[in-house]
Every structure is written in C-alpha cells, then in structure tokens.
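TASK: fixed-backbone design
INPUT:
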C-alpha cells in the first residue's frame, strides 16, 4: 500500500463513527484524483469496508434528481471505468472480465441518460408522451412510461440497479488481482512497501492491537505528524526510516535522557517532550492517557505531534506552552496520570511500561480559559491550530504495521 493510500484509509477509518457527512466529504475529495478512492476502499480492513458500504447504501439517492451529479453517480462511473482499464491487462476474476465490465460501463452511461430525463420530467408541473425522450428508455430495453406512476416505477428500478452495480464494482475492486493492479497503477515504491503494510482492524478510535515490531506503548499520530511522514517519504526516505525507528523505540518505553527532553512544562499543564534523532531533527510528543472502550480502563499512550528542527521548535516555543496548558485543562487526574512512570521489570533504568488506571469520574475541575498568546508573525499558526484542536479532542488517527524499521 502506498503512503498516500495508507493516509486515505486512515482518514476514512477516523470518521466511521462520526456523522455520515464527514465520510461523504472525504470520499468526494478522493474521487477528484484518479484512483485514490479505489485504492483506499480496496485496502480497507473488512470491518471498516462494511461500514462504508452501509453508509453508501443508507445514503443512496432516492430520486433521479438527487442521483444525477451526486457522489454516488460519480463513484459508480469512475469505479467501472477503472475496472475496465485494469481488465485490459489483468484477469480480475469472476464478473471482472473485460467484456462484462464494458457492458456494465455502457449500462451506467445509458442509465445516467435515462435518470437525467426522469429528473427533467419530474421537475415539470405536467408532461405528456410528446415531452419524453423515448430513446433513453429504449436503449435500456425499457418501456416508455406514460404516467407519473410508471415514471416513478422506472426511476426506482434504474436507481436500484445502479446501487447493485456500485456494490458489485466495490466487490471486484477488493479482489487480490484488483488490489495488485491498483497498487501497480499508483506506483508503489520499495521504501513504501517495506515500511507501510496493511492497516489493522479498528473497532473504535482506540487501537487495541500492537503494531508489529513495536512495543506496548500505543502510538497516536496527529494530522500534522502524519503530514510530516508523508513529506519525508517523498523527500527523504532515509530520514523517514530514522523517524520510524525512533517511534519504535519510544513504543518500547525507551525514555532515555535523549528521548525525553522537556519542551514545555508549566503549572497545570501536560509536559511535552522532544526526542533526538539525526542532525537537528526532533520528534515531538506527549505521554497521553486514553480510554480503551473494551476494558473500560485508561491506559498511558504516546501522542506524536510531528517532526521539527531546532529553528522550528524555537519559533514555536510559545505554542508548545499553550498546547500543554490546553491539554492540562482536562483535569488534575489526567495531568497526574500523564506524568506517572512505571519502570518495567528486568529492564534498564530508562525503560518504562505504560500504566493502566481505572476510569475516573470527572474531578469537576473547571476548564480554564487559555491565555491568548502573542503569536510570532513567522509562525504558520493556522496549520498548528488544526493540530491543536485535534489533539485537544484526543482523536487517534493512525496505527499501522511498519515491519522493516531496521
């Protein structure tokens, strides 16, 4: 899976428990780029894919007017076209032959014309047989409707067939042959193939399964950090591997002096740390405390904020203070649990294990109002504000298997 596809699947999985509009927005965005939506949906784990299909089914347009120009219409036409292109050189299995897919693509085009005609007629206050474009129905081997009731019946029949074809196209996209063909089309690099494997099954915004090769500390990655990883993959794969190794070390609880250097730690705040890497590159993170919905326990975890150099850290020093204070607004108990450390058995002095706590009731400590800091003009605060809000809601974004980190 490419890093872009991994990012896209992560974004989809992150909104599966949010209102349906959030998923629709992401899918619409992915459909704008050739092959992105196909790759993301083809490589989702089964549970997440089932939720996406449920969303597509529940939100499928009920009228021709709603369907024409909708995300569902665009998705169907683009997915069928992608499958036809791949079928030229690849055997996609049952139902995925070039001949059958060509027929499906032709059917989608003809159905689109018929639905557009139905939408036009439905918008008229009154219509007669002479108003109907007979050919669009004849092309589908359908009898031309003569009444409003017959028109509504044809509308339902065609829409139901479009939904069935969309589901069938998604099924073909997820066959091993299709996934391989999609990966080839997207141009997967060897670095990406080595570092990024398939995403794991997600049952909630908390990831309950250890990453292969990583330790017992769960890692949560902000949007800013994920953007940094994508940039490193394109610009400096060697640095990316160094960052992943550092994340692996931290996941194993290796909190040596070089791995846990304080950036910010003020009154009623949560400490924010940096870990040394190559040159002046630093990984910025915090020790967080998150709830596991299955065990109903709170567990220490690591939240990665991003990769920065000395100059960037200096310019953003007031921001880290503000972020630490905002995180601390979650209460005294939360702050104390983020600060606690438990040394693992039979380990060196610098190796620690994540602590597990019983869920606590709200300690009724009122949320403090943050000071309005004077932001240096050279700081792109709008980008950091997005990360700031995201982290404040403790929303996990990414957990993947990075198998060959060295």
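OUTPUT:
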């Amino acid at each position: 899976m490419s890093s872009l596809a991994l990012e896209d699947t992560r974004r989809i999985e992150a909104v599966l428990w949010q209102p349906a509009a959030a998923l629709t927005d992401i899918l619409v965005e992915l459909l704008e780029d050739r092959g992105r939506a196909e790759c993301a949906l083809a490589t989702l784990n089964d549970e997440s894919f089932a939720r996406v299909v449920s969303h597509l089914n529940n939100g499928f347009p009920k009228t021709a007017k709603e369907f024409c120009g909708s995300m569902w219409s665009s998705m169907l036409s683009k997915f069928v076209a992608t499958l036809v292109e791949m079928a030229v050189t690849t055997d996609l299995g049952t139902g995925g032959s070039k001949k059958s897919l060509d027929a499906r693509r032709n059917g989608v085009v003809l159905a689109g014309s018929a639905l557009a005609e139905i939408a036009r007629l439905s918008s008229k206050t009154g219509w007669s047989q002479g108003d109907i474009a007979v050919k669009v129905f004849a092309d589908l081997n359908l009898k031309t409707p003569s009444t409003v009731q017959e028109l509504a019946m044809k509308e339902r029949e065609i829409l139901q067939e479009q939904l069935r074809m969309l589901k069938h196209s998604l099924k073909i996209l997820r066959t091993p042959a299709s996934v391989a063909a999609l990966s080839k089309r997207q141009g997967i690099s060897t670095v990406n193939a080595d570092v990024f494997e398939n995403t794991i099954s997600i049952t909630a915004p908390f990831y309950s399964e250890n990453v292969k090769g990583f330790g017992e500390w769960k890692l949560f990655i902000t949007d800013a950090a994920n953007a940094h990883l994508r940039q490193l993959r394109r610009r400096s794969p060697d640095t990316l591997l160094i960052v992943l190794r550092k994340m692996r070390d931290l996941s194993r609880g290796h909190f040596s002096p070089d791995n846990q250097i304080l950036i910010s730690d003020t009154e009623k705040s949560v400490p924010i740390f940096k870990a040394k890497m190559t040159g002046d590159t630093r990984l910025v993170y915090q020790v967080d405390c998150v709830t596991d919905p299955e065990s109903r326990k709170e567990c220490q975890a690591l939240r990665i904020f991003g990769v920065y150099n000395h100059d960037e850290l200096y310019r953003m020093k007031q921001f880290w203070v503000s972020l630490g204070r905002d995180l601390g607004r979650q209460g005294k108990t939360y702050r104390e649990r983020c600060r606690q450390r438990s040394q693992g058995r039979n380990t060196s002095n610098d190796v620690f294990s994540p602590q597990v706590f019983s869920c606590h009731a709200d300690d009724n400590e009122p949320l403090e109002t943050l000071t309005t800091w004077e932001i240096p003009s050279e700081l792109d605060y709008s980008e950091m504000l997005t990360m700031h809000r995201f982290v404040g809601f403790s929303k996990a974004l990414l957990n993947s298997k990075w198998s060959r980190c060295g």
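COMMENT: Strands lie at 218-221, 261-264, 272-276, 282-292, 297-308, 342-343, 352-353, 356-358.
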